[in-house]
Design brief:
This protein is mostly helical. The chain contains 17 helices and no strands. The chain has one domain: MFS general substrate transporter like domains (Growth Hormone, Chain: A, Up-down Bundle), CATH 1.20.1250. Helix 10 runs parallel beside helix 16.
């Protein structure tokens, strides 16, 4: 494709701006729920449910978005979703009660299911040997969006708490997302060739059907479940980071936003730069294994941290674990046909969404229990230790899947 490089830039900027809007509200949403709920434990449970509702919608709609993009192209799916996401931020800014927040999260989850189309777009414009490295650009976009977003969100929460209330970041996020949509409307080209389009099928457009469609790719299924467990483990960040740092270090939303900004910045550096060099150098399998081990170590040290400054070196070291996702995505994308990339990415996005449903409930549940008086012992870092164990299981599944593939190769 002659416009491959410009197309990658277009989708990268689209994802950065999309994630920037999400990152802006991360530091203030727990505080807003706490403000409405009145206490830390009640806010923790409500916040976890809000995150799960969002992911439930992604689980239900990601395969549909992927299949629609296989039929009609990536561009219309991305643009319609972005427009809906922008309007949803303004709904959240207005929401007078928690019930309206749940309505907003339902709509946000539906529009956020466009991730499968974005990943298929990357696969469309990337040759097989560069797919893993280019999937790293998606992680870099996430990282950059979450580096700048929480930083801005932290600042806005500090300003808004005095003058505009905690709703100001929602207005900013909505405005940025609609600017993103308008930019894509003008410049985003279609990536799916006419010959690679396939007829729409409801059978492949639901979570179960999309998973069953991949049964003929045993390695893909094995790696997909490993990817799922990694996603479950990483839900500890959006679910408990602000709550954990508030409880353990007495951090404000501004301080938490700054720390998340560093997380995002390191992710952008690693997945946008180092991943594109280390994955081809080490190979996809070795890169994934090393990165997963780093994740285990980082989770353990987060849970052991007793002072705020301790998390910063762990953030820098743990960022290398971000290489795992693009390496695994590259292996799975290279195992299926070009006209199935949307379906594959829809299936992976559904699994990530399932992780987003159960992950916040596990993480916030463990955090809430181990800071309560009913706990057998006080362990605020229990959610991080649980994530370390989950990633260890994911390593085992990935090794088994790769060994099976090697044994079946001629």
């Amino acid at each position: 494709m002659s416009d491959r490089k410009p197309a990658l830039k277009f989708i990268f900027i689209t994802l950065v701006l999309d994630l920037l809007g999400i990152g802006i509200i991360v530091p203030i949403l727990p505080a807003l729920v706490k403000e409405m709920n009145g206490d830390m434990q009640g806010a923790t449970l409500t916040y976890g449910i809000l995150l799960s509702v969002y992911s439930l919608m992604q689980f239900l709609f990601a395969p549909l978005m992927g299949s629609l993009s296989d039929r009609f192209g990536r561009r219309p799916v991305l643009l319609v979703s972005l427009f809906g996401a922008g309007l949803d931020y303004f709904l959240l800014a207005w929401a007078p009660t928690l019930m309206w927040f749940f309505v907003g999260r339902v709509l946000a989850g539906i529009t956020g299911a466009n991730f499968s189309a974005a990943m298929a777009y990357i696969a469309d414009v990337s040759p097989p040997e560069k797919r893993a490295a280019n999937f790293g650009l998606v992680g870099a976009a996430f990282g950059l969006g979450f580096a700048v977003g929480p930083f801005i969100g932290g600042l806005l929460s500090d300003v808004g708490s005095h003058e505009f209330g905690l709703r100001l970041p929602f207005y900013v996020a909505g405005t940025l997302t609609l600017i993103n949509w308008f930019y894509g409307l003008l410049v985003l080209p279609e990536s799916l060739k006419d010959e690679n389009r396939r007829a729409f099928s409801w059978k492949r457009s639901n979570p179960v059907g999309s998973l069953l469609a991949m049964r003929r790719y045993p390695m893909v299924l094995g790696l997909a479940f490993s990817y799922f467990l990694i996603s479950v483990a990483h839900q500890v960040y959006p679910s408990t980071w602000m709550l954990y740092t508030d409880f353990r270090f007495d951090w404000t939303p501004k301080q938490g936003g700054y720390s998340l900004a560093l997380v995002g910045l390191m992710a952008a550096i690693v997945q946008g730069g180092l991943a594109r060099r280390l994955i081809p150098l080490w190979g996809e399998q070795k890169a994934a294994f090393i990165a997963l081990v780093i994740n285990v170590v980082a989770f353990i040290f987060y849970g052991l941290s007793t002072q705020g400054w301790m998390v910063y070196p762990v953030i820098i070291f743990g960022a290398l674990g971000g290489i795992a996702a693009p390496a695994i995505q590259g292996m799975t994308a290279n195992s299926v046909a070009d006209n199935e990339q949307g379906g594959l990415q829809g299936m992976l996005s559904s699994l990530v969404a399932v992780a987003g449903i159960i992950g916040p409930l596990i993480a916030t549940g463990l955090f809430e229990f181990f800071i309560s008086e009913d706990a057998p012992f006080h362990l605020p870092g229990a959610a991080f230790f649980s994530s370390a164990l989950i990633v260890a299981v994911a390593i085992v599944l990935a090794v088994i899947a790769c060994r099976k593939q090697s044994s079946q190769s001629p």
